[in-house]
């Protein structure tokens, strides 16, 4: 560890998530938020949310809302923020003046047409396209005449010679020769500062110690480090995370079909299951597959971040969600299922019955939506249509046994052992095997031949509803 890293390590950890609200946040984005959040929580530090909204044409309030809703749902609320870059323009201009005073920036009057022509010529010569320093002032250099009526951009005077180096917590040591970097535009002709400059000012002002972000930013890092140094500030520790790929092996993006994070909430996934699944997309703790939020925070550090791109797998996500459903306390699960029912206009149902539905069905469901489907099926006013299963199982041959069972159920105590005894007695009386009676009973009372134990199902539904449904043949 070098002196710079030792100095950072001695400070309180402060991480940030800095999305651009130009599209709805998806799981690849939120994975980039998860690790800085977890690192802050694991070290007793601070997690800051910054909205990088300088792309005014593409930024939308709707996208900001999805960011805030997603973090709220996942329980990843920031300690500070959200801060909006568009509200910090005066601060950026103040720092620009500081750089001007220090001789770190200069006006460049090269037009876009001239720049495009330069790049075309460089590419034709098989050279790396880059700004050629035409307007960079140097001792003894004659600058071109300033064209009339042209507003210049401001370029950062990148150091010449030497290297920019950092020890990336994911990628290891990275060194870039300064001569590979051209002089970056840090303010547009109208004075609006550009991305790489704003990021540095924000990270300095917010005392960010660790920048944990996607590896699409690696090329920005040496430029940003040089701006930090020009401002006399210490760069943070960097960790550049590999890309998250979609199921087709492409970079996850809205263009490639990625869903907004809030859609997973609406589809009945659990926040802790999402945290669990996303954590494993680029980090590991031995062979542990299923773990709680608290375990993740206790285990998390930057030393076990993976170097390879991770691939999203919705089937695996559903499995992880099912494991968390099974482990969840029935009452807490019922509180998540109730809003799913309310969205369908389902009248408020008995809390005890809803808990019982969760207890009986959570082992065979992978989302709260699937649990709500069962609750609606069992606790609603009508049985879902199941014409094919009725035709297959509710035959004339079994009707006498159904009548006998209905009579026995009308008279027995309404508890599972007594219901089981009534079913057993009916089977013996009519010479039937369990499936021959249980299947038609399930179809009549639940609209499907496939449910958990029939006596548990009937007990849950209540005598009145069971008898009413058995009578509708």
TrEMBL record:
Cellular component GO terms, alphabetical: cytosol
EC number: 6.1.1.17
Membrane-spanning segments: none
Every Aminoacyl-tRNA synthetase class I anticodon-binding domain range: 333-471
Subcellular location: Cytoplasm
Signal sequence coordinates: none
UniProtKB keywords: Aminoacyl-tRNA synthetase, ATP-binding, Cytoplasm, Ligase, Nucleotide-binding, Protein biosynthesis
Motif ('HIGH' region): 19-29
Functional note: Catalyzes the attachment of glutamate to tRNA(Glu) in a two-step reaction: glutamate is first activated by ATP to form Glu-AMP and then transferred to the acceptor end of tRNA(Glu).
PANTHER family per the UniProt record, alphabetical: GLUTAMATE--TRNA LIGASE, GLUTAMATE--TRNA LIGASE, MITOCHONDRIAL-RELATED
Entry's family note: Belongs to the class-I aminoacyl-tRNA synthetase family. Glutamate--tRNA ligase type 1 subfamily.
Protein name: Glutamate--tRNA ligase
High-level lineage: Bacteria, Pseudomonadati, Pseudomonadota, Betaproteobacteria, Burkholderiales
